[in-house]
Design a protein that fits this description.
Oligomer: heterodimer
Distance between the termini of chain B: 40 Å
Radius of gyration of chain B: 14 Å
Helix content of chain A: under 10%
Shape of chain B: globular
Number of strands of chain A: 11
Number of strands of chain B: 11
Strand content of chain A: over 45%
Mean pLDDT of chain B: 90
Largest interface: A-B, 27 and 26 residues
Low-confidence stretches of chain A: none
Radius of gyration of chain A: 13 Å
Order of helices and strands of chain B: EEEEEEEEEEE
Number of helices of chain B: 0
Number of helices of chain A: 0
Order of helices and strands of chain A: EEEEEEEEEEE
Mean pLDDT of chain A: 94
Low-confidence stretches of chain B: none
Structural class of chain A: mainly beta
Chain lengths: 113, 114
């Protein structure tokens, strides 16, 4: 089954404690991306990757890091989480770019206290 | 900042009516346009995409694109209570460093009442 898998799905953490949200896709997609969703603000793009070792900033990259060492994985790293990073996070992938159909993971609810 | 604007609603229509959802975008160079549906607490799911001016129909859904006026709309015919959700418009601003960016509108909440 074609899917985008995120982990963890739910996490409560404390300010400053580094965490990583993993994302994996099994569709051999070149393009992967991370979004956060907040009430009234919609989905905002954090980072995206056009291929292995190629990453770029989206609209709200501050406080986040990513890496793309393998085609299937695109982890999101919060080096020092803060309460304003409490949000619902979605990983997504598509065949080649943001101009193709994008498939979303189920989302990760992150709370930073 | 390239922008995508939607009326947040809520838009309420009776069952069986046509629901009309609108979206405007700021960049004339935009290439690809998507409509996603999102149920509360779930991930967005693609309804339709459109690349060219005009209408594109898929079952009860019709997407309309007018690049000159920079708007894209979604019509839902014979609306059903199961269509009640948030509808997200997304635009790919292609070209240069924007090739990988997909910008979403805030979403329109649609409620279909029996």
């Amino acid at each position: 089954e074609a899917q985008v898998t995120q982990n963890p799905r739910y996490l409560i953490t404390v300010t400053g404690k580094k965490l990583t949200v993993t994302c994996s896709q099994n569709m051999n997609h070149e393009y992967m991306s991370w979004y956060r969703q907040d009430p009234g603000l919609g989905l905002r793009q954090i980072y995206y990757s056009m291929n292995v070792e190629v990453t770029d900033k989206g609209d709200v990259p501050e406080g986040y890091k990513v890496s793309r060492k393998e085609k299937r994985n695109f982890p999101l790293i919060l080096e020092s989480p803060s309460p304003n990073q409490t949000s619902l996070y979605f990983c997504a992938s598509s065949l080649r770019s943001a101009g193709n159909t994008i498939y979303f993971g189920e989302g990760s609810w992150l709370t930073v206290v | 900042q390239k922008e995508v604007e939607q009326n947040s609603g809520p838009l309420s229509v009776p069952e069986g009516a046509i629901a009309s959802l609108n979206c405007t975008y700021s960049d004339r160079g935009s290439q690809s346009f998507f409509w996603y549906r999102q149920y509360s607490g779930k991930s967005p799911e693609l309804i339709m995409f459109i690349y060219s001016n005009g209408d594109k129909e898929d079952g009860r859904f019709t997407a309309q694109l007018n690049k000159a006026s920079q708007y894209v709309s979604l019509l839902i015919r014979d609306s059903q209570p199961s269509d009640s959700a948030t509808y997200l418009c997304a635009v790919n601003f292609a070209g240069g460093t924007s090739y990988g960016k997909l910008t979403f509108g805030q979403g329109t909440i649609l409620t279909v009442h029996p």
